[in-house]
Amino acid sequence: NDDERPAPNVPESCQRFYKCESAGMADQELTYQFQERKLGDVSFAHGTVQQIWNGSYLYASHGSPSNFSAFCFTQRAPLQQNQEARGVTLHLISSQGHSQTIEEIVKATKQTVTVPTKYHELGSQIAYFKGGTEIFFGEKCVLADGLGH
């Protein structure tokens, strides 16, 4: 749409993410949707998927980037743990009734961010952020359009 009118409906890709039964399943769904967009080498900052799945797009605390920012999507290191395996682990923990203290939950959802140090890293982060923007807000949203230029 344009910057004057809201979208007529929630994108199907966003609906798929929020229909997941747990943050672990949402992690897997988001990874799959990035793969569909040929961005399968994306890695999410720790806590990003859990915060977005809980509906917290804005900043977690003053002085840190929002839960949905270009700093939360980076290129996965070649030897980094498989994103899909991480999603399965998160789902098993949540579905098997593993109880956590408030401190453990806060620690698990604490944001970590990656700042690019090279030009190509910045380009990759912008591409990942554009992919995330399309997933949650649709391909025709103003932000996704602007990131494409």
Give the SSE layout.
Elements: H1 12-18, H2 23-36, E1 42-44, H3 48-53, E2 73-75, H4 83-95, H5 102-108, H6 119-137, H7 142-147
Antiparallel strand pairs: 1-2
Helix pairs in contact: 1-2, 1-6, 2-4
- Structural class based on helices, strands and sheet pairing: mainly alpha
Low-confidence stretches: none
* Structure summary, number of beta strands: 2
Helix percentage: 40-55%
Strand content: under 5%
Number of helix segments?
7
Sketch the topology as an H/E string, one letter per element. HHEHEHHHH
Which strand order does the major sheet show? Answer: 1-2
The averaged pLDDT comes out at 77
Shape: globular
Main β sheet profile: 2 strands, antiparallel
* Span between termini: 17 Å
Kindly provide the radius of gyration, computed on alpha-carbon positions and rounded to a whole number of angstroms. Answer: 15 Å
Gist?
The protein has helices at about 10-20, 25-35, 50-55, 85-95, 100-110, 120-135, 140-145; strands at about 40-45, 75. By secondary structure, the chain is mainly α.
Walk me through what this model shows.
There is one protein chain. This protein is mainly alpha-helical and 149 residues long. The protein contains 7 helices and 2 strands; from the N terminus they run ααβαβαααα. The chain has helices spanning 12-18, 23-36, 48-53, 83-95, 102-108, 119-137, 142-147; strands at residues 42-44, 73-75. A two-stranded antiparallel sheet has the order 1-2. α2 (23-36) runs antiparallel to α4 (83-95). The model has no long low-confidence stretch (mean pLDDT 77).
